[in-house]
Amino acid sequence: MPRKIQGGLIAFIFFISLPLLAQKEENALSLSLEECILKTVKNNLGLAVEIITPEIANLSVSFAGEKFMPALALNYNKRDTSSASYSFLDASETVSTLQNNYSVQISQFIPTGGDFSLSLNSNMNDTNRRFQSINPRYGSTLQFTFSQPLLKDFGFKMNRREINIAKNNRDISEKNFTKSLEDTIYLAENTYWNLVYSIENLKVRRQSLKLAQELLEKNKSEIEAGILPPIEILSAEADVALREADILEAETMVKNNEDLLKTIMNLPAETENTEAMRIVPTDSPSVVRKELSLEEALLAAMQNRPDLQAIRVDLRNKELNYSYAQNQLFPDLRLEASYWSPGISGDQILYEEGNALTGKIIGKIPGGGSDALKDAFNFKYKNWSVGLTLTYPLNNLLSRASYAQAKLNLEQSRLRLKNQEQQIFLEIKTAVRTVQSNYQRTEAYKVARELAQKKLEAEEEKFKVGLSTNYFILQYQRDLASAQIMELKAVVDYNISLANLKRIQGTGLEKQNISRFYKKGREN
């Protein structure tokens, strides 16, 4: 093949489609960028760890809301007592009393900070004491109780604070997971393009070695024919040795990037014997100029950056804690109200002449515990009470310390937000500038590669007619290989800088449709 045609193929080696260059080999994995991202979100161990955090935070929300769930309390107590009688008027020898007490209560904590409860208390008392009017005696009381703080601990904001903080913490954990997801996907994309670069770099190095070897063989033939002096072979042999060393370095770079990409994708989770597996990228980086606006990029970052959103949510937590600490400085003033209905029944003992002091029982009018319950539920006897209770601490040192701490934490959080906004502005400016610079590099290195190609072709024509030497041919070959590698590096850097800009803007998941990838990856 003529050197001119051969040189042209070298010049365009990077722009040939990778799928056409990638041959089906045993134990090789052909992988597109989309497939790489899918495997990463499906298998990456770092993401598997991070996804658990939002689930834990979501359980914390449920736990915080438990305080507003109604509570049911049941109590039963039976008591049988006996004691010596100290007076014949009390009992003959032994005073015996049997008591049964049971209660049912439903209580509810309400968002304003108050407590509401409904309770039913019943008891039975049976004794052998003398002069009893009702024995056994049954009593029941139905009672409504309400307590509401009016200063300290008053209001929805104070009493839903734990729930709101738990929800905010859940949002923060979700934002942190989104940030981890974006960083991991960017790392996978970065490594993917670096692997593409290292593979293409190895191809260029091998082609450069091939050219040096061809020149060496040509020199040997011309030396044997007496056209060239023997010393001319030394420079060709030295250059072949140097280019062989370059290939060893390029092969190491390929293996390192392959290992890094396998780790990011956690490839052993899907495939056995991945140690010897080669990864063959099937996508090529493109050079499409992107029109960038610093203002639009900054606006997108301020709206979408998950770490910035997490700081804003944390600021809301600090505001809630500050309001709560401020509220705790108030005295405790409570409104307490109750309404109850008692009922009583039992066996009514009839004495001679209606006088219990006679001690002569002439009959009984039976009564059961249900009668007491009926009186209670029918509100036969209505009772109510309303009152205010004021509790003022003589020293609220701890409350004032908590207030001062909450105030400082709030100020610290506001400063952290401003600092993060400044850092994002700097990152956006740097990222936009890097994208623009890398695009200009691709254009410049493209021209440099084309000129290096033309210089080599011209020098080869001079060499054919004896107007050049091995030294210049080898030098121009090295210049061409270097120009090809620099152009390749510039194109890869341009694509990586675009991915980095999306990550810094917080739009990487949207642009790459990672949400769909992640859902699909988790389902598989």
Question: Could you describe the 3D structure shown?
Answer:
With 524 residues, the protein is an alpha+beta fold. The chain has helices at residues 3-11, 18-21, 33-43, 45-50, 52-64, 156-159, 161-224, 232-265, 294-304, 306-327, 369-377, 397-464, 470-505, 508-511, 514-523; strands spanning 28-31, 71-84, 94-109, 115-127, 134-149, 278-281, 332-351, 361-365, 383-391. Strands 2, 3, 4, 5, 7, 8 and 9 form a seven-stranded antiparallel sheet that branches. Strand 4 (115-127) and strand 5 form a beta hairpin. It is rod-shaped and about 160 Å long. It starts with a helix and ends with a helix.
From the N-terminal CA to the C-terminal CA, the straight-line distance is 50 Å
Helix content estimate: 55-70%
* Order of SSEs: HHEHHHEEEEHHHEHHEEHEHHHH
- DSSP strand count: 9
Alpha-beta classification: alpha+beta
Report the β-strand fraction as a percent range. Answer: 15-25%
Largest sheet: 7 strands, antiparallel
| Low-confidence residue ranges | 1-25, 520-524
Silhouette:
rod-shaped
Number of helical segments? 15
Mean pLDDT: 85
Q: Please compute the radius of gyration using only Cα atoms.
A: 44 Å
Outline:
By secondary structure, the protein is of the alpha+beta class.
Draw up the topology in text.
Blueprint: H1 3-11, H2 18-21, E1 28-31, H3 33-43, H4 45-50, H5 52-64, E2 71-84, E3 94-109, E4 115-127, E5 134-149, H6 156-159, H7 161-224, H8 232-265, E6 278-281, H9 294-304, H10 306-327, E7 332-351, E8 361-365, H11 369-377, E9 383-391, H12 397-464, H13 470-505, H14 508-511, H15 514-523
Parallel strand pairs: 1-6
Antiparallel strand pairs: 2-3, 3-4, 4-5, 5-7, 7-8, 7-9
Helix pairs in contact: 1-12, 3-7, 3-15, 5-7, 7-8, 7-10, 7-13, 9-12, 10-12, 12-13
